[in-house]
Design a protein that fits this description.
Layout lengths: L1 H18 L10 E2 L10 E9 L8 E8 L3 E7 L5 E7 L2 E9 L4 E8 L16 E7 L2 E9 L2 E11 L4 E12 L4 E8 L4 E8 L8 E6 L18 E3 L2 E2 L1
Antiparallel strand pairs: 1-7, 2-3, 3-6, 4-5, 6-7, 8-9, 9-10, 10-11, 11-12, 12-13, 13-14, 15-16
Length: about 240
Amino acid sequence: MKPLLILLLCLYTAPAEAQRQFTFPKLAKQAKDISSLIPPQWHAIDTAYGDLNGDKAEDMVLVLEYDHEIREQRAYGDNITEIIAEQQRPRILAAYFGIRDRQAFTLALQNNDFVLRANEGGKIGDPYRSVAIEAGALSLSFAGGNNWRWDLKYGFRYKGTAWVLTEAFSRYFHQDTGEMTSRTFDFILQEVDVVSGNIHNRAAGNHEFRESLRDEPLRTFKTFKKPWAWEILPDTYL
């Protein structure tokens, strides 16, 4: 009877475990250092330091990854209609403002969606490249693709109550032919500089021009779900 009882218990508990939904942890509101804010079963895959809010204190940005794979639903296309489930390790983007007189950090951002996962880069592997603090902007870089390759870079700035996307760069090119289009976006001026031609030609023979963007509110982490999920221009995704 004992083996049968164990088997029945396993059959009973397995569905309950499978149905248990993954929940992102809430990061610590304040911390003295990185080690004191990383939740159990998570680890940091990248960090950056600099001044994000102009107060001359050193701030910190980090990207965390869960130790285990889960079945996670991710947005594609327009954020709403194209949702697929993938087996992967979730990631978190966090920013902490430094408190100079207390030698501590206070949480300024936790985003559970924007950072691409390790299997979202196509044939070349993990698309995550780096996080940095550049001239006051929180900068994130990604790259991926198959025969057609892509590079993406985003710059978010803290504007008192929200993190606003103020600049971005995208490049799409064929690894064999070199056919390429790159776009440098300025969301404050609502302009984009376009370079079309061949990635191997450097500047020679490439066509450069400037376009105006559609007049719409600036995007934030709340209104821009993840890379490749915003059709910023017709047939052009960022």
